Amino acid sequence: MSDPAFQEPGSRSSYATGLLVRGRLAMHRAVVRRAVVAFLLLAPPPLLLAAAGSAVLRGTLRTREGQPLPGLLVIVTGPESRTLLTGPDGRYEATGLPVGEYRLAVAEPGFVLAPEPVANVGTEPVSLDLVLAPAPVREQVLVAATRGEATSSTLGASVSVLDREAIESRASSSFLHLVQDLPGVAVARTGGIGSQGSLFVRGGESRFARILVDGVPVNTPGGFYDFGGTLPFDYERVEVVRGAVSGLYGTDALAGVVNIVTRRPEPGQAPDLRVSGEGGSFSTWQGGLASSGRASGFDWNAGLFRLETDNEVENNAFEQTAAVASLGAALGADTTLRTTLRAEDGTVGTPGQVAFGRPDLDASSDRTDVVVGARLRHARGPAAHQLTAGVATTDQLSLNPVDSGCYTPTAGTVTGAFPFCDFPDPEGFQNDTTRASLGYQLEAQAGSRHLLTAGVDVERETGELGNRGGDMLSPSRTNGGVYVQDRVVFGRRLFLTLGGRLEHNDSFGWKAVPRASLALRLGQAQATILKVSGGAGIKEPDFYQSFGQSFFAKGNPDLKPEGSVTFDFGIEQRLLDGRLRAEATFFHHDYEDQIAYAILDYSTFEATYVNLGKTRAQGLELRVEAAPHRLVSLLAAYTLTDGEVLVSSSDFDPVYAAGQSLLRRPKHQGSFTLRLGADRLSGALTVVAVGASADSDFLGMGLTRNEGYTRVDARVRGRVTRGLEAFVVAENLCDEEYQEALGYPALGRSVRAGLRLRLGGAGRP
Q1: Which H or E element spans position 175?
Q2: CA-based, 20 to 30 A from 697: which of 28, 151, 371, 668?
Q3: Is residue 128 part of a domain?
Q4: Per residue in 266-278, pLDDT tens?
């Protein structure tokens, strides 16, 4: 039989054959369609992308200084629009995009992304890194609030950052006066530079803030840190987080966190050499030699500094030698290693409360602080792993070799009820402590809206404390904690941070502490930000409170941790195209279970420590920054702190009685700074006004109030020639007589002048 397809047309058989042929063709077409669908469904992703004509767009978001910016939104518009959350190290990625031209934008107040980036994507992946330049009033990036880089506008927490430019412009002779300009921070120093110095955050005790140096915890066990000898040598920035942050850090962070970061080279910076020298009032002279740069995947900043001054008052002379280093290395494309070092060795005379009597002319304090840290970080794709290790040691020896006799304290017409005598101690009192820390942290992007952080820390604390002529206390303690945090973005305006920590301490056992904050951006330009944050804080007892062996001060192993519950809410407003930023924050902090010294038997004076005290601090913080012109900037801050003792922690001094104001924490404090000029010639003026505060003479005279004061600081600097700069700094320009701590006169007018020479070091413009 012949093929039916070739039957003659018009015949009955040819008609039937045509129907058969059309049916077979339809069946063939259906089979082909099913095969194509199956191929598209089963094809691997690269083939799908090629078939769909789509591509991948990825990159990294950083500041001009090279800081990564995780947790921000990159808005991609083109043939298809996407909103991308940057993950660890500021990385973003969009997959499955149709081929075409795309424009990228970043909705972040305080930064400028210009010109608007454009990417032409095809079937091959396209990389486009984004660099954000600061607005006239710049946004700040910090680490301490989330244990990773974050911009302040995405955080509901109250934060302040002093960057390198602000630190160098302030030209402060001490760390305490540098941070005194910030809202919510009060300071007190018992004399001149190098004398014992305390920092109070939002009405908390001086032991209630976690202090980090390049991420390494440096508080002595129990939370105290002496800022008297902390000098602003080669700082990159100072970060201050206000509010309980124990949900991330565990012990010490009842009232806040202070993180000091050592200077690092600028992106693309060639090696440089920096030499500085200055001298001035009170026989002060200071010199420094430093170098920084980048070469072949390695970067460094290292310096050596020396300061000497007589501090105006007899036997208050201070001298210090300091060394700093920050060394980084790229170990491949995704792995970096950074090591840091800060070492300070100093001696200061301690004359005592010379405002009330004769100075002690032989007492002194020798102190050596060393902080060493290392961080190994591997970041690839949506996850980053980080290992950290650090050691912080404080070796302090207080000497009083000669008996200076007795004296009766006086203040004006007030005379003490009894004389005070010297207690010579030729062997000296030693306070040596070491805090070693080890940690692991994971940062991971989960989906398109979550940035997760989780980690574990272990700390080992040891010490050698007491009179070197008697039995020394040699305690040790191991602490550990696990923490988790989720930074989640809802839409393009709501940023929520939730987290908590489970802490185990050898002294008080287990404790869980939560933390949360929220930032909501309003308005078309997202220039209005509402902020809310709250959390709980804990602090371990110090070594004497837990392990003391003296009959008159026995340690109590059953002490609970001192605690806090804090919350705040505020509003931030940006105006005039980013040239003005104003912020107002209300805060309320409760400090509970504060440890107090208690006498158990008044016939024998046997004593120990108990959880007794409770205080409250609430108030208002205001801050305004303005840059009306490229040559003019203004900064003003004000803090109202209403602090009160709710339950007394002392039976001996009425200043600690219930209902009293908090010691050395002024109710009113404000500052104003005006900066003028550019690179060739610039100047600045700062006015610090501090109101009266509760205090005590501690000498039985009944003085309970320290009067307020106003201090004016001024500085001017100018370029002499390329690489050479001259400067003059005046502190307490009006020669105000005041005391930051009752009985200890502050320095009078101080003027110093000097030169700075920088050779090489060309980096970003």
Answers
A1: helix 175-179
A2: 668
A3: yes
A4: 888 999 999 999 9
CA dist., res. 248 & res. 390, Å (int): 17
Domain total in the chain: 3
Q: What is the pTM of this model?
A: 0.90
Shared domain check, 610 and 556: yes
Pairing type for strands 318-330 and 298-309 reads antiparallel
Question: Which residues constitute the domain of residue 12?
Answer: 4-42
Res. 646: pLDDT tops 90: yes
Q: b/e map of 161-176 (b: 16 or more CB within 10 Å)? A: bbbbebbebbbbbbbb
Total residues found in the chain within this entry: 765
| 233: nearest Cα among 213, 215, 212 | 213
**Local structure of residue 166 (DSSP, 8 states):** H
Decide: 54 and 134 in contact? Cβ < 8 Å: no
111-125, 198-212, 365-379: segment of lowest average pLDDT = 111-125
Phi then psi for residue 342, to 5 deg, are -135, 125
Cβ atoms within 10 Å, residue 474: 13
Q: Is residue 149 part of a domain?
A: no
Are the beta carbons of 94 and 126 closer than 8 angstroms?
no
Q: From the centroid of its chain, how far is CA 761?
A: 27
Q: Check: CB of residue 601 under 8 Å from CB of residue 593.
A: no
Tell me which residue of 619, 659, 752 sits closest to 286, measured CA to CA.
752
Regarding whether 268 and 352 lie in a shared domain, the answer is yes
> Using alpha carbons only, what angle is made at residue 415 by residues 413 and 419, rounded to the nearest 5 degrees?
160
DSSP 189-211: ESSSTTS-EEEEETT--TTSEEE
Neighbour count for residue 700 (Cβ, 10 Å): 16
User: Cα–Cα distance between 297 and 617 in angstroms, integer?
Assistant: 49
Q: Who contacts 115 (Cβ-Cβ below 8 Å, separation ≥6)?
A: none
For residues 9 and 615, which has the higher predicted lDDT (pLDDT)? 615
- At 658 the three-state DSSP class reads coil
pLDDT tens digits, 514-556: 999 999 999 888 899 999 999 999 999 999 999 999 999 999 9
What is the percentage of the chain residues whose pLDDT exceeds 70? 92
Determine phi and psi for 561, rounding to 5 degrees: -70, 140
CA dihedral 116, 121, 125, 131 (to 10 degrees): 0
Q: How far, in Å, are 441, 588, 648 from residue 105 at the CA level? A: 30, 38, 56
Determine how β-strand 364-380 pairs with β-strand 383-400.
Answer: antiparallel
Alpha-carbon gap, residue 342 to 401, rounded angstroms = 31
* Distance in angstroms (rounded) separating the CA atoms of residues 146 and 141: 11
> 563 and 485 in one domain?
yes
d(C-alpha 387, C-alpha 382), whole Å: 17
The two tokens of residue 556 are 């109590």
Closest C-alpha among 317, 297, 316, 293 to residue 307: 317
Identify the three-state secondary structure at position 624. Answer: strand
Q: What is the pLDDT of residue 11?
A: 40
13 with 128, same domain? no
279's tokens: 């001298």
Rounded-to-integer distance, Cα 137 and Cα 131, Å: 17
Other residues' Cβ atoms within 10 Å of the Cβ of residue 341: 18
Chain segment 694-737, per-residue pLDDT in tens: 999 999 899 999 999 999 999 999 999 999 999 999 999 999 99
Q: Is the residue at 164 inside a domain?
A: no
What is the CATH classification number for the domain harbouring 130? 2.60.40.1120
